[in-house]
Amino acid sequence: MPMKVLHILDHSLPLHSGYTFRTAAILREQHRLGWETVHLTSPKHGVAAGADADREEWAEGLHFHRTPHTPLRVPGLGEWTLMDALTRRLHQVAAETRPDVLHAHSPALNAIPALRVGRRLGIPVVYEVRAFWEDAAVDHGTSRDQGLRYRLTRGLETRALRRADHVTTICEGLRQDIITRGIAPGRVTVIPNAVDAERFQLGGTADPALKAELGLEGCRVLGFIGSFYAYEGLDLLLQAFPRIHDQAPDVRILLVGGGSQAEALKAQARDLGIADQVVFTGRVPHDQVNRYYDLVDLLVYPRHSMRLTELVTPLKPLEAMAQGRLLVASDVGGHRELIRDGETGWLFPAGDPKALADTVLHTLARAADWPQVRANGRRFVEEERNWPASVARYQAIYRRLTGLGEAARAG
Fold this sequence. Notes:
Pfam families: Glyco_trans_1_4, Glyco_trans_4_4
GO molecular function, one term: hexosyltransferase activity
CATH architecture of the largest domain: 3-Layer(aba) Sandwich
CATH topology of the largest domain: Rossmann fold
Number of helices: 18
Radius of gyration: 22 Å
Largest sheet: 6 strands, parallel
Number of strands: 14
Domain Glycosyltransferase subfamily 4-like N-terminal: 18-193
InterPro entries: Glyco_trans_4-like_N, Glycosyltransferase_grp1, PEP-CTERM/XrtA_GlycosylTrfase
Keywords: Transferase
Shape: globular
């Protein structure tokens, strides 16, 4: 009998995010290992309750069970009703599919229902931490650092970590934080972020028509493609740009995407007098993203230093390396786990616009080094940060919790 794992998720495809891309990669690799997987999303995926609610959906070749739910707009109670709805739906799906393992993915709002159902049905629970919800809420402005909601959320996460049969996480920074909460090191395993290098083609040639349309003809381009959250540090890139432009007048900035900081960044560009040198495209269709990447000479990831960025490794630098692209990034902990300064990219001290400007200028002036750095980055993801190597780490965890590996060997 193949291993059967029921994954409990915050949201999934067809929504596109780093969270959903990691999930899809894990599921597909587990299928290649011969395991059977079942997938359930929480009410946060966004399926309203009702007689005609879609309780199942296929997306990009993967089947998902949904949890219809009408949120309760009462402060402090909404999360509890969400967990209750997910508990009921999870119990139903688990009773029907009879998995060997319940694998809950961040946040704790998914882990607590998994623990409830796991205890009732006698199924071991793995909890995977991709980030701490309380830290993300601080950056998004929905919670105050060390405020009541922050402390309650942190307490809920710690409770889930202590009760889970095993904990997995995406990087060493998060692992160390989990251990400080009283979790034995042997119960915490890193399943690092990775990429499927074969799904990423090496960067192509810039489309002259698109370059002309955006006013970037004859320019060298610094770029960022993604969501404009405050922690991404795009304000720092704008602060650094006048110094860059003084010494390299042909340089422009291309910002592709949108998010909570979009209007503030546009206002900052106007205040700095650089609005005519910064191109905001807005969000672009997913199948067109590579056309914009191909316009960029140097990707910039200037994340600010905060708990979230010091602890969590992002996917974007890995995806950039898989495409053989060049990148400059701040030296926050999440970047230092991925980027080898001067070898696969370049790092600068976080929060320092002068250092960012100088690193960009130094990199632009060293074009002779670019081919080797591109090759080093591609080799890093092919040899060290690939999904087969990453997902294989689940095997020992699942086998120990279920005894299925021992049973197979005995047979």
